[in-house]
Amino acid sequence: MSRFSSSLVLALAGLVLAPATANCQVNLPIVNGGFETGAATTVPSGWTVAGGSNPYWIGDSPIGSANPSLAYEGSQFISASWEIAGLPNANSLIGGSANSALIYQDVDLSPYSSQIGLGDRYLGLSYAYYVNDGNDFGSIGYEFYDSGNSYLGGNSAEAQAPSGGWRFVDDSASILVPANASRLRISIGSELNPGGAGSARNVAFDAISASLQPAPPPETPTGIVHGNLIQFDSDGNWTWYTDERAIVDPNNGHVLVNSVGFDETVQGGGYPGNVDVVNFNPTTGRRVRSRLSNQTGNPQIQNDDHNVGALLVLPDGRYLAMYANHGNNGGLGDEWSRWRRSIKPGDSTSWTEEQLFNWHEEVPGANETGSTETGNVSYHNLFYLSAEDQVYNISRSHGQLSTNGASQNMPNIMRYDMATNTVEWGGQLLESQAQGYSAYPKYVSNGVNRIYFTTTETHPRNFNNSIYAGYIENGQTFDMLGNVIDSDIFDNGTVAGGSGFVSDVIDFTQVQAADPLGQGYNRLWTTDMALDSHGLPMALYTSRWNIDGSTNDGSTNNPIDHRLHMARWNPTTQSFDCQEIAKMGGRLYEPEEDYTGLGALVPGDEDTLYISTAFDPRDLTGVTETANREIYKGEFDGSQWNWTAITESSGVDNLRPIVPDNHGNGPRTVLWFRGNYNTAHDINAAVVGIVEGNGSIGASRYVDANANNTTFANDAQLSTTAPSGFAGADDDQWHLRTGVGNGGSVLSSNESGTEDAPMLKTTLANLDDGLYDVFAYFWSDNDEDWRLLAGLESDNLVDFRRYGSQHAEADQFDAIELVTDNSNDLLLYRAYLGRTEVIGGDDIDVFIDDWQTTNGSASRTWYDGVGYALVSSGLPGDFDADGDVDGNDFLIWQRDPDVGDLADWQAYFGSANSSATSAVVPEPPAALLLSVGIGTAVFTASLRFGAA
Description:
Blueprint: E1 26-28, E2 48-49, E3 57-59, E4 78-80, E5 101-108, H1 113-116, E6 122-131, E7 136-145, E8 151-159, E9 167-176, E10 183-192, E11 203-213, E12 224-225, E13 230-233, E14 246-248, E15 255-261, H2 264-267, E16 274-280, E17 287-291, E18 310-313, E19 319-324, E20 336-341, E21 355-358, H3 359-362, E22 378-385, E23 390-398, E24 409-417, E25 422-428, E26 442-445, E27 451-455, E28 467-473, E29 476-479, E30 484-486, E31 509-512, E32 521-531, E33 537-545, E34 562-570, E35 575-585, E36 599-602, E37 605-615, E38 625-636, E39 641-645, E40 647-648, E41 653-658, E42 668-679, E43 682-692, E44 700-704, E45 710-712, E46 721-724, E47 735-738, E48 745-749, E49 760-764, E50 770-781, E51 787-791, E52 798-801, E53 806-807, E54 813-815, E55 820-821, E56 826-838, E57 844-849, E58 861-872, H4 887-895, H5 902-908, E59 912-913, E60 919-920, H6 924-929, H7 932-941
Parallel strand pairs: 44-54, 46-47
Antiparallel strand pairs: 1-11, 2-5, 3-4, 4-11, 5-10, 6-9, 6-11, 7-8, 7-10, 12-40, 13-43, 14-15, 15-16, 16-17, 18-19, 19-20, 20-21, 22-23, 23-24, 24-25, 26-27, 27-28, 28-29, 28-31, 29-30, 32-33, 33-34, 34-35, 36-37, 37-38, 38-39, 41-42, 42-43, 44-58, 45-49, 47-48, 48-58, 49-57, 50-56, 50-58, ...
Helix pairs in contact: 4-7
């Protein structure tokens, strides 16, 4: 693929050019006429052999069966091959086996100085090329000189592609013309691909043309994220029936995110899925990833989004994680629940060995069926009830069939013993007369005495579901009116169809009834649950809006018009208030009619939610459909939902948002996964999110990585392979690739093979004191998955990729040369590294490395530079960098005293920034009255939730 860069100031003019008006395009004739007359050692008329290169160009002649026999356009083309000269090998040529050919023509630009001197002329370039095999590639390059023959800059592009026909390149108005250019040199070359061997350098060119053009129109921004995008895990996704997939630890404010990853681009084909937990500190932006699954000797996790784990903070501050394969009675998954507990409170990096619970062997009745599939398990939902001092897990597994005798899985309860780190089966929770996979409950707990749930009868493909709700308390289930439905959820019988009563989902309070098939809202499905500002349950669920009158079994062809609904329990009417929220678009993939982007409620705030949809909810007519699913934030003003976009113009889908409960304190974290969802077993995505209310970020200062600020990580002087506009060799060294990137070059690796270049360190020096967000910048092709390892600690680098990184936009910087290139096919990506405070002029070190998969394949790295943005104006005591000093800052200090001096918080409590450079400071007597105890009281009193 050709890659052009406008990082160097370039230009083009022609041989015969009529005066151009400001907005006219002028076609520039290039000397191509001699292509037909060239011989094996004589270049065509108008072209010259470059010094140190070989004259083996020929005109209008096929080189072999794999080469073009006809021109791309007309009858003229030019080819290069030393074989055509009758040489038995390349040893006699300049450069020997590594030889290359380069010819050029010079163009006098002085007649066009009046147009070029305006400084707003752009190059338009077109050419066709034909490459025989992967070891060959052509090049086309440009050099510009002023009237004194001083070099002004240059650029080159690869012409490389698999064989099989001519390729045409058209880069119109992509490169700015330097105002003082007086001479242009156009070159075409035939090169050996670094790392290749045995090539004859078979390359052909045709239809070379160029134009002088006015400035191109501004490019439409792509991959927009409103907020600072944070990559939590480079390979991760989740289903929505496991909770909590993300939690906020109330003891330290850290966000823990669980996901399952299994994309081939990360680890190669044929490997198992991986259940990860990432610990994120919102104060510093530090992320630590730990792998939970696939401990030695235990059954492996499969490639399926259902296999994500649930997380819980135990009363002693340790973490519990439980996960399973996608088990059902249709052949998927297995009968094992897996769990691990962190060894220390607040530490997600060290865990006990993976434990197993066998649902087939240890659940009464399951082992009587004769099939282990009956005991297969899916999903985990973890809750701690302080009134009982008990941890519960609710999973889908063996149904005792106490009401209908059908073979299906159902929600079951498991009790976890905190003292022994063991589990036991407690009983089957629900039953359903409807046939299908299972009831589909979503849960939420108050953490004290209740676990609320909303549920369907079964899978929407099998039944025209309604939605029902109830709660668990003191070992019993109740409907929403407080009527006991099951007086003992732990008294199940010991055989299938045993004596223990299991309540049917339809015994509980109806949230919304499905309309008859063929009209209205059909086949409802639960999505999310949370408690509102009054501690009452609210829920999201989806439906099909049936516009075609279909009454079939669910195999409706796309498009299916899915809708999102919200329900809130109204204690006055003793019923749920329900409303349609948004259009959700069609299904994610063909076999699953009801998979959508879904939505997330905000715990404690009934007036805010986040959704993933292919229909822009800002358009009240409901007709604006986007190319990919985007994330939107909805805010209810008392009469309607008002929407703002979190993501826009995305190149991939943004799916299944989560908002973990922050317990009313600290910033709000919104998470989702971003990438390509092909099936539940084939997902290539990264876990990302934004943190709201965590300080505003100013304009970033870009710092280009070069030998003046970048060394090897061990402080040794940086050395690279020689500067070149082509791919670097496979030699485990960083390559200085020129003609691309900001500052005219990038540090590249893994361009010609699998490399392991040394770790780098780029140092930011001479910064003013303050709190800074720090970024690293790298390039990626839109069709490839280029990578960068980067971080603020040499032993804790994050694997960044374009799915998990934010496309850099020019308005994010105080100044930047390039954020796109090659007609928007190359994009500059911003990788968020974290937040750090500069005190006394401290330096900030950024560590950079290349990346490869665990099976040895590699992804290209183009590292461009780093950036920093001031977050705090330096207001003492403003530990959360939100512009004021309040109780939240004290809470952050309590969690981590290293964030600053408590005396600053006491002295400046109540202060707020009136601008980026000034602050309102309380009078000294008032400040002196503030103490830790008073501050805590003020903080507690100031907690606010959303309006009723």
